[in-house]
Amino acid sequence: MSNIRLTKTVQSGGCAAKLSPDILAQALRKLPVSKHPNLLIGLARPDDAGVYKLSPEIAIIQTVDFFPPIVDDPYLFGQIAAANALSDVYAMGGKPITAMNVVGFPAGKLPLDILREMLRGGMDKIQESGAVLVGGHTINDVELKYGLSVTGTVHPDKIITNDHARPGDCLILTKPLGTGVFTSALKAGRIKQGQMKHIIKSMLTLNKTAAEVIVHPHTKGFGVGACTDVTGFSLIGHGYLMAANSNVTIVIDHKAVPYFSGALALARAGFVPCGTRNNLRSYQRYVSMPAELPEEIINLLFDPQTSGGLLISVTQNKAQLLLKRLKDKGIKQASIIGRVVKRGQKRIIVE
Ligand code: CO
Ligand code: CO
Ligand code: CO
């Protein structure tokens, strides 16, 4: 196996790798939005994934995600990219059934064993999810990129959208924040991959178990109103989308939010990905924050996550029970991080 540091081969950088939500919204504004009686969730009210009804019993969930390496080891990168792509199906309450590889590979610049190891990592996660790989598409690219297009299924009445957070609900987050500060510190050479094992372990953990807990038939009584996964737009960005779509305000207790150990120190040392600035530019205006909130906390609340946790809005009297069930199933860092209130001046209040 070659000793190439994959994060050093990335040219586009964290910022160019993902379009800012503001820019994307500008581009989409001028385009028509598809409408069809069977299109249950599309771009008219964006959620984690699109959902299309095939029959009264079955709807398909479709999603795609891919990006350049954020860790140096191709096998781990493959697992992380696949876990991240599969996550949107879980965030909708569905089960992944098929996946396709989406690959950009700089032929002649990187050895083929990197491609093979990366795809092996992806394959392992696809298998763990219970889905099957049905194909893929590869282009000769200036730099490595990898991800999946995933199709899942869900009963049309059991879709978990991001628009049903209700005043009085509690908010649970299933993974800590800070993958962005760690991956930018790794890219800058400030830390070694071995110093972020806990982050890597979290990123390659599927949101499968968490999703199974919230959709389990016997746990219907949990009263989950809304769910989304926290990814590139950060806790604040995805929380904003949930609040806006539900027409409520979300209150986040920043002291209750779990951060990866070491994340605050790296944020304080200035390892802030470009994506954080994009997120601040796009969402800060919807947020009220205490004047004395330390900058490193702000940077983590706006930190773009890769393969982040689920943000779940649940009836207040069921929140402790759901939290316990998640922890019993091994999701040890799940935490109640806030609550939902009636719509106020701002969509998000950090306190
Ligand atoms: Co999502
Ligand atoms: Co996504
Ligand atoms: Co959802």
Could you please describe the fold and organization of this structure?
This protein has 351 residues and is an alpha+beta fold. It folds into two domains: 149 residues, 60s Ribosomal Protein L30, Chain: A (2-Layer Sandwich); 181 residues, PurM-like C-terminal domain (Phosphoribosyl-aminoimidazole Synthetase, Chain A, domain 2), CATH 3.90.650. The protein is 34% helix and 23% strand. The protein is built from twelve helices and 13 strands. The strands form two sheets. Strands 8-11-7-12-9-13-10 form a seven-stranded mixed beta sheet, with helices on both faces. Helix 4 links the parallel strand 4 and strand 5. The longest helix has 18 residues. The mean pLDDT is 93. The site of one cobalt (II) ion has 6 residues, from helix 3 and strand 8. One cobalt (II) ion (CO) binds next to loops.
* Major sheet strand order: 8-11-7-12-9-13-10
CATH class of the largest domain: Alpha Beta
The proportion of residues forming helix, as a percent range, comes to 25-40%
CATH homology group of the largest domain = PurM-like C-terminal domain
The largest pleated sheet is described as: 7 strands, mixed
CATH architecture of the largest domain: Alpha-Beta Complex
Q: Low-confidence parts, pLDDT < 50 over ≥5 residues? A: none
CATH topology of the largest domain: Phosphoribosyl-aminoimidazole Synthetase, Chain A, domain 2
The total domain count is 2
Radius of gyration: 19 Å
Q: Strand tally, please? A: 13
The 3D shape can be described as globular
